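so my prof wants the structure for this chain in the tokens format not the other one, which i didnt know existed until like an hour ago. anyway here's the sequence
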Amino acid sequence: MSSTSQQRVILVTGANKGIGFEVVKKLAKESPINNNIILLGCRDLKRGQDALVRLGSPSNIYLLQLDISSRDSIARATDEIKCKYGGQLNIVINNAATGELELTVESAREDKYLMVSLVEQVHL
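here's what i got, hopefully its the right format
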């Protein structure tokens, strides 16, 4: 990877579908390729690759496997950002969430929802 000192590194979590995907699409359209490096953060690399194809595989968008409910995954993603981009991360758009919440009293499921949607954002 070339020097990123002139470029902004932007991470969008939960970026393989929904709002995160649309944010990446808008960033890709509105920013010159050599000004921004966009990290498409996703839990599932296959779904991330599919999202890249739907975006037209721009040369400034890169996959970053990241499950914000897993501290190990956050640590691996952090190491990758340090290695590939010199630790530079200018903008983080925390979009990741889980859609598994149902209207039940199952506290484990609710706890996971809150951990991903609120608490793990801080750890990222």
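also thought this was worth mentioning. The beta strands are 8-12, 36-42, 61-65, 91-93.
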